C-alpha cells in the first residue's frame, strides 16, 4: 500500500492538509460519520469542544477496530453546526492538536452546516482510510 499526499503548484497554500491524496491499496476502510455520542448513546457534554473530543475518541476506536491508524486516513469531511468561521477554526485546531491529528494532513474538507442528525449535535466527521 502506498499513500502520496501532494499540493500541486498552481493551487493555494493549505493550513496543513493536502489538495491531492493518491492511494494504491487493496483495502479501503470507510467509517460512518462519527458523531459525538458516548458509548451510552448520550450526547457528549461540553459544547463544541466536548463534542469534538468525543468524535476524536470515536474515530480512534473505529479506526483501531479495522486495524487502521490516523496515518492511514486518506480523506476526511468535517461538519460543524455553525455559521461562525471561528467555530470551524477552533474545531480544526482541536483536531490537529489531538492524537488524530495526522488524519488531517490528507485530503480534507471543513464545512459549516445548518444542522446534523441528532438533537444538539454540533460536529460530525466522515473518514476514509487505506490499508
From TrEMBL:
Q: Which CDD domains match?
A: YjgF_YER057c_UK114_family (cd00448)
GO CC terms: cytosol
Origin superkingdom? Bacteria
Which Gene Ontology terms cover its molecular function?
deaminase activity
InterPro entries from the xrefs? RutC-like_sf, YjgF/YER057c/UK114
Looking up Pfam families in the UniProt record yields: Ribonuc_L-PSP
Return the similarity comment. Belongs to the RutC family.
Name of this chain's protein: RidA family protein
- Originating species: Kribbella jiaozuonensis
